[in-house]
Amino acid sequence: QVQLVESGGGLVQAGGSLRLSCAASGRAFTNYHMGWFRQAPGKERDFVAAISSSGANTYYADSVKGRFTISRDGAKNTVYLQMNSLKPEDTAVYYCAAKAMYSGSHYSTNNYNYWGQGTQVTVTS
Predict the structure, then answer these.
(1) Which of 42, 51, 52, 62 could serve as 57's disulfide partner, Cβ 3.0–4.6 Å?
(2) Containing H/E element for 115?
(3) What is the tens place of the pLDDT at every residue in 45-97?
(4) In sequence order, what are the beta bridge partners of 95?
(5) How far is 3 from 61, CA to CA, in rounded Å?
(6) Which of 111, 33, 123 is CA-nearest to residue 84?
(7) How far apart are CA 115 and CA 26, in angstroms?
């Protein structure tokens, strides 16, 4: 089992920044690829960013590329999502997720084994 706890969400004006954190506990953190997803009211949960187990490879949705940065700290068992130049359309609940190695695409929610409870991000215009 892997337990994931997100933090860092909040209310911010358009153009501002937030950094989300996801603290992992349980099985070896470095064995898992990590992802961030988001879900706006009435919409499906969408891929935002992912990082490989080693941290060497990162993946982004087109809508956040150049504005968001995913990173991980193995010593702290934590993955981060730095969000800059935020827009009102970034408003959503953001979820951290862990995916076992060799378990398919980074982009699909179906391939992630563990999920956090989510943290709300609200961007005002």
Answers:
(1) 52
(2) strand 114-115
(3) 999 999 999 999 999 999 999 999 999 999 999 999 999 999 999 999 999 99
(4) 37
(5) 25
(6) 123
(7) 13
